Amino acid sequence: MRFEPLPLVALASAASAAVSASNSTTNGTTTIDEPCGVISSAVAEFYSNDSNAELNFEFLPSVANACLLSSGIDNELAADFVIEYKKYVEFLTTQAYLKDPPSDYPYPAVDILGGLDSLASKAAAGGFKSQYLLDIALNDLITSAHEGHLYTSFCSLQAISYQRPFNLASVSSDGVELPKLYLLADILNNSTQISDVVAINGQNATEVVEKEGLFQLMDPDAAYNYMTASQGRVPGSGSNIGTFEAVRYNFFPGDYTNVTFSNGTTVPFENFAYIPPGTWDTEIANGDDFTKAFCILPAQPSPTTSSASSSTATATSSSAATASATETTYPDLFPYTPVVRDPNNQVAGYFLNGSDYEDTAVLWVSSFAQEDPRFADPETITISFQNATRDFFAALRDAPSRTKLIIDLSGNGGGNTLLPDDLFKRLFPDIEPYGASRIRVPVAADIIGQTIAAVPDSLVVPTAEEIADPSTVSAQKIALYTSFFNYRQQLTTELTNFTGWSGKDGLFPPNVQKGDNFTANYRPPLNDTVWDESVDGLDVYGYPGANSETFPQPFPAENIVILTDGFCASACSIFAELLTRQAGIKTVVVGGRPQNAPMQAIGGTKGSLAQPFAQIQQLSQAVYNASEYIPSSLLELANSTLPGLNPLPLGANSATALKSWSVNGADNIPRGDDLQIPLQFVFEPANCRIFYSESTVLSPRDLWMQVADIAWKEGKCAWGGIDTVVGNNGTGVGNSTQTVPTSGSSSNSVVVSLAVLAAAVVSMLML
Ligand SMILES: *[C@@H]1O[C@H](CO)[C@@H](O)[C@H](O)[C@H]1NC(C)=O
Ligand SMILES: *[C@@H]1O[C@H](CO)[C@@H](O)[C@H](O)[C@H]1NC(C)=O
Ligand SMILES: *[C@@H]1O[C@H](CO)[C@@H](O)[C@H](O)[C@H]1NC(C)=O
Ligand SMILES: *[C@@H]1O[C@H](CO)[C@@H](O)[C@H](O)[C@H]1NC(C)=O
Ligand SMILES: *[C@@H]1O[C@H](CO)[C@@H](O)[C@H](O)[C@H]1NC(C)=O
Ligand SMILES: *[C@@H]1O[C@H](CO)[C@@H](O)[C@H](O)[C@H]1NC(C)=O
Ligand SMILES: *[C@@H]1O[C@H](CO)[C@@H](O)[C@H](O)[C@H]1NC(C)=O
Ligand SMILES: *[C@@H]1O[C@H](CO)[C@@H](O)[C@H](O)[C@H]1NC(C)=O
Ligand SMILES: *[C@@H]1O[C@H](CO)[C@@H](O)[C@H](O)[C@H]1NC(C)=O
Ligand SMILES: *[C@@H]1O[C@H](CO)[C@@H](O)[C@H](O)[C@H]1NC(C)=O
Ligand SMILES: *[C@@H]1O[C@H](CO)[C@@H](O)[C@H](O)[C@H]1NC(C)=O
Ligand SMILES: *[C@@H]1O[C@H](CO)[C@@H](O)[C@H](O)[C@H]1NC(C)=O
User: Fold this and answer.
1) What is the CATH number of domain 334-431+547-606+679-738?
2) What is the pLDDT of residues 493-506, one digit of tens each?
3) Residue 13: its pLDDT value, please?
């Protein structure tokens, strides 16, 4: 899952606003001549004082909004942008389901490609008055997919952020009664006299938070949680700030958030807009300048003639062999004193104190890839994760009285998709993880698949000697072998090879679902060292190549329980699905909307691959350049459908932009789901649902004790109970029509390999 980072200390580093709406104010919208120019003058003045150099520049939201609304637009360029952008979005797997969702899907149906067509037509007809209005329309469209892997930072939305000056918490008296909203600061003050928040700007507070949370996560309860404070998110994001405070998606919050408490008091809080240091060009005099600065690209060479050179280095850097000796230490984001702590802030293992809990251990997995350089060394995260879990299971073998294990997945938004298999095998060495994925195959993907299939085997498949020593395989061969659209790479659901790209036993038979073309369901070759090491930088525990000692199953399933805050997504969803579907592990979920109803443990995307635009683009270019292998009947189609042959004409002028923009590139299809419904569209309630209380919202340890009581001492839940049979098929909790009996999921993130492929194919075939 992909999220804009929350501002870690935005408030602490804030300085007061220097811009005021000096002109007239009409109807809540400030009318200023050239508001963007007014901001420029104030920014220049603010940073002329050296002591402000590290601070955010803060100012009135209504001035920010006026500037954004005044942004200039070239509608013709905007139309070209949407047309090219759509070629990438074709790779989004869930379109047909979004257009026609199952009856218990909580959101309205949406036609993403059709919506893009409409926006392109409107732009072509000169229909947008500002770049900001176009970007808001695009953002509204793609966030209505509720798909954490579908992410684009549209250009005009990057300039200015909004924030409210307080954090909300949703707290129940005991974790079982329905929760109310409070200011977190009130709870921290530990006063006995605090009143709950009943209204926000005169509207029902719960409904305001619910509505504003709508576009944040896949599940509405998980989204509600994400709006409010949580200590559970600290190891993952460095902050407990909820997104009611850290306003997302450029939702304009107005100048005030007026909070009414149950004691009748109303407090008008002043919201603010902010600009981080060094990000605003003070030459901006008006809205046209704003758009030029943030959206219009400098002239660039056609990408089809430039090589994808920069990708090779990044691709090899994650190999299992690299363990950097850097001595950097990162802040300890995990609380207390863990028994084992990953220095990269991904995993920590604890033994609970107290005579009632001396049999209980906790493994907190907050991320499967902590990629924030403030908190981790991206070069070592994979190995440090494996080491920390290895060491924790060793500590458990030395402490045989610890017979119960809570696996806390709070705040885990995903990451490396082989680590879930690795950790699963440490817990259940005798179960073969079942994970099946499939890719949507638009015309462009079919062309890519056919072209790679036409490249001779000798350039693609590692020899026996190379498999024995993966370090001897050339980068080029690895790249070809591990490419997503290479039929030789993946295994069938029965763990046999595919026979080709097209055809009945091929990777693309085609598998037609809801009128859309997909590949067959495939499983990753976990036993394949070349693949594991080049794709995800590790050898999976218990498979060839992993030279770690193996041990028997450490706990019976009934002595393990999963705790989540609903944030779990992507690789975390793969892990939770394996544990629940294949090993029968029970789940407890905490938080969500104030209702005694079931809630999903996995509330983020359940897609199995975040596919960056950069890799789709490089792959397209490589394939286009490999035209001798493109079936000649498809050459013309290749020209018009492959994404990235033309540069995106707006707001994507840095390599970083395309690397961070992504689609959900693969669906997770559980075993036994004959209807092949992607898990995002299957409601899977946790066995037990509770709420945060005043103590558990601040203390993960108090929460673990409550969860231990529920799992092993008949503690109460707000909905369900540890023995509630949920069957992961929505029975009795909505009207899902799909049957989803026990099965599991896993997949691969070939994020790295496509880039290498591109570089390799370019160099191989252009020579
Ligand atoms: C509006 O603000 C601009 C910029 O501060 C200033 O130049 C202009 O005189 C103001 N107009 C009025 C009517 O106050
Ligand atoms: C103020 O805004 C409302 C709602 O957007 C609109 O109906 C009304 O006409 C506006 N009033 C003025 C004076 O602009
Ligand atoms: C809050 O106050 C209660 C008594 O009113 C006390 O038992 C508790 O330790 C306090 N908690 C904190 C975090 O200060
Ligand atoms: C009402 O409750 C709020 C929130 O707890 C508090 O800040 C405020 O002081 C209270 N007002 C009165 C008049 O007690
Ligand atoms: C919020 O309070 C401010 C300051 O008292 C006031 O100007 C504004 O109209 C209020 N907004 C709403 C929506 O009540
Ligand atoms: C606020 O809305 C929630 C959810 O719709 C509802 O349960 C609650 O009763 C409402 N509160 C008030 C004070 O109307
Ligand atoms: C992982 O553990 C091995 C063996 O103990 C050690 O050599 C290596 O440096 C560790 N790597 C990291 C990144 O912690
Ligand atoms: C599947 O293909 C791989 C090479 O891609 C080969 O090493 C392996 O032997 C094949 N397996 C079977 C069962 O044919
Ligand atoms: C699906 O793929 C087949 C085979 O390539 C093609 O003939 C058909 O037009 C495709 N259908 C759609 C809806 O793209
Ligand atoms: C992995 O397992 C599959 C299915 O059992 C087999 O076809 C393949 O040859 C194996 N690959 C390696 C590298 O052992
Ligand atoms: C691809 O299409 C563009 C127009 O979209 C055209 O200018 C170009 O010549 C075409 N290239 C090839 C190789 O057909
Ligand atoms: C769903 O799961 C429950 C519990 O495992 C089972 O009793 C029920 O038959 C299942 N329903 C369907 C439609 O498969």
Assistant:
1) 3.90.226.10
2) 999 999 999 999 99
3) 34
